[in-house]
Amino acid sequence: MKNNLNQLIDIFENQIPANKMIGMKVDQISVGKVKVHVPYQEMFIGDYRQGFWHGGILASIADAAGGLAGFTTLTSPEDKINTIDMRIDYLAPAVKSDIFVEVNLIKVGKRILNADVVLYQKDIHNPVAVARCAYSALRN
């Protein structure tokens, strides 16, 4: 799918129901690198007393964005990516504001891809969460 990044954006934003429901938008995409943002919605609140984002929503965003970065390395429409492992560290509360995500693939092997994912709100140097994701690549 390296050759058609615009098609990947459409699939990611419009054809994956969970991504569409969350409202994920691709800001930048290149092979192995992705920037995504998610506009804040009231339904994302997990701690209603303090108004913080639900950690599960943040994990879903990290996983989806990391998978998109993995898809940028594939060459055939029949190739597939599956999450095999993910670790997320929550570093600060995510408040009632948009979430921004930057993903960098750190290793692209024949069968395994590894991604570093940073989720932040105002400043990438002050992240709300970081994740390390591993994906299996099923290449045809």
Q: Which keywords apply here?
A:
six-stranded antiparallel β-sheet, 41% strand, 24% helix, single chain, two-stranded antiparallel ribbon, globular, 140 residues, alpha+beta
Describe the structure.
The chain has 3 helices and 8 strands. It has helices spanning 5-15, 17-22, 55-71, and strands spanning 25-30, 33-38, 45-47, 52-53, 80-90, 99-108, 112-120, 129-138. Strand 3 (45-47) and strand 4 form a beta hairpin. The chain is globular and about 50 Å long. The mean pLDDT is 95.
Quick synopsis:
The protein has 140 residues and is an alpha+beta fold. The protein is 24% helix and 41% strand.
Record the SSE blueprint.
Blueprint: H1 5-15, H2 17-22, E1 25-30, E2 33-38, E3 45-47, E4 52-53, H3 55-71, E5 80-90, E6 99-108, E7 112-120, E8 129-138
Shape category: globular
- Quick check: average pLDDT? 95
Secondary-structure-derived class: alpha+beta
User: Helix tally?
Assistant: 3
The SSE string, one letter per element, is: HHEEEEHEEEE
Q: Cα-atom Rg, whole angstroms?
A: 15 Å
Percent of residues in helices: 10-25%
Uncertain runs are none
The largest β sheet comes out as: 6 strands, antiparallel
Alpha-carbon distance between the two ends: 12 Å
Number of strands: 8
What strand order characterises the main sheet? Answer: 1-2-6-7-8-5
Strand content: 35-45%
